[in-house]
Design a protein that fits this description.
Jelly Rolls; 7-stranded antiparallel beta sheet; 7 helices; 433 residues; alpha+beta; 42% helix
Length: 433
């Protein structure tokens, strides 16, 4: 390059001298100046352009510069694309974390909901898809690093590579945590399903045993009404329950067979309680008091005596008009009265209990008021029966099931050790006689 510059100067001086000589003018002077070692000795572009036209080397350099510029643009596009991928991954991760927080500590999860964007619904498929996602992210990072290695001039920034590595590490850690959570949820769901299946099987077995017991009890009775309920102890947990309730009534007749030798007093053969009035209808013989009939917690004393240990047929009638009542024992009317809760309708929707007096509807029994003995053919009508009909039932010459509450095996439940047993009441009564 120094030789080229000197030659150019020489040519320029020669040309100038000739021009000066020809014209008679004075020639130009050239002053040589010392140049420090290492200084740029290249000729100015203008001087070079004066000497020769564009060389092939310059054209090659220009093409190289253009290629480098295109490479820079491509690298910028790649960086923008990778930043978009990172934003997409962050968005999916945010949705996953928000879904995990919204479901909190719930033990059972709804796998029908898509909780991670494009992840599958089943826990096993979710685990496999998470693994594929992590591998895809690793492949992307390796491609970016390979692209950087093949690009001249170091156009791919180290900061972006480090950022991608950190994000990939974070995502891998979070995905592994999510996989562990899904595995735990899957295990919990399996345990809960097993426990629920076991509870269901136990319930079904209990029902089957109960059905078997009912079938055996039904097969033991010659007819649905030929049975008795036994309440052998004075407790607050032995009792029977009528499954049917009562409608609203303005009169009733209730009849039953009783056998008891309890002292003092046989207790409470039956009680009917409704919300707000536990003593809607009660028949009770408590302590040394005579037998009493309660209607809407109003009391009438009955001239009945059944504590001799034999079977007795008892019937009680009542009508809301003037509160008139009648008491029958073994087909004979022994007493009447009036002004027992007059003009009061019997309320519907209550509970009929055999053997216990109710302090609240269906419960809170008092052992001192419990019936001790046996009871059968409890029937109830929503009208006052004729004396001839009552006498016929007491003499075993006719049987009339109650139109409101009939005495049938399927209609009576027993609890606390009370039992049901076969009984042909008329034959047993004749044997007692």
């Amino acid at each position: 390059m120094r030789a080229l510059c000197v030659a150019l100067l020489f040519l320029h001086a020669s040309g100038s001298g000739k021009a000066a000589g020809a014209s008679g003018a004075k020639g130009n002077r050239f002053v040589c100046t010392a140049v420090p070692a290492g200084a740029d000795l290249s000729c100015p572009v203008e001087a070079t352009n004066r000497v020769q036209s564009t060389s092939p080397q310059e054209e090659e350099l220009r093409n190289t510069i253009i290629q480098l510029r295109e490479t820079i643009l491509q690298q910028k596009e790649t960086i923008v694309s990778q930043q978009g991928t990172i934003k997409e991954l962050n968005s999916k991760l945010a949705r996953c974390e928000a879904d995990a927080k919204s479901r909190g500590g719930a033990r059972r999860k709804d796998y029908s909901k898509n909780t991670m964007g494009d992840l599958p619904r089943d826990p096993t498929e979710t685990v496999e898809q998470l693994g594929k996602t992590m591998q895809s992210l690793k492949d992307r990072l390796e491609n970016l690093e390979q692209l950087r290695a093949n690009t001249s001039g170091g156009m791919f920034p180290n900061e972006l590579r480090d950022l991608l590595k950190r994000r990939l590490t974070d995502l891998e850690s979070q995905l592994l945590t999510r996989v562990a959570e899904l595995e735990e949820e899957k295990s919990q769901l399996y345990n809960e399903t097993t426990a629920h299946r076991q509870r269901t099987e136990n319930t079904l077995n209990s029902l089957l045993e109960r059905i078997t017991e009912l079938e055996k009890s039904n097969s033991a009775f010659k007819s649905p009404e030929d049975f008795k309920v036994s309440l052998p102890l004075r407790t607050n947990y032995l009792y029977g329950r009528i499954k049917k309730s009562l409608p609203e009534m303005y009169a009733f007749t209730v009849c039953m067979w009783l056998k008891s030798s309890a002292s003092p007093g046989i207790g409470t053969p039956f009680s009917y309680g409704v919300p707000g009035q536990a003593n809607e209808i009660v028949l009770i013989e408590w302590g040394n008091s005579p037998m009493e009939l309660l209607v809407n917690d109003k009391v009438a004393q009955l001239p009945l005596s059944v504590s001799d240990g034999r079977w007795h047929h008892i019937c009680i009638t009542w009508t809301t008009r003037d509160g008139f009542w009648e008491a029958y024992q073994d087909g004979e009317r022994l007493g009447t009265g009036e002004n027992l809760a007059p003009w009061h309708p019997i309320k519907p929707g209550g509970v009929i209990i055999l053997g216990q007096e109710q302090d609240i509807v269906g419960g809170r029994f008092d052992a001192t008021q419990a019936f001790v003995g046996e009871l059968s053919h409890f029937n109830m009508w929503d009208r006052v029966l004729r004396p001839i009909d009552i006498s016929a039932m007491a003499n075993c010459s006719a049987y009339m099931p109650g139109n409101v509450v009939p005495w049938v095996d399927a209609n009576v439940e027993v609890f606390g050790g009370a039992t049901k047993a076969a009984l042909e009441i008329c034959e047993d009564r004749l044997f007692d006689s």
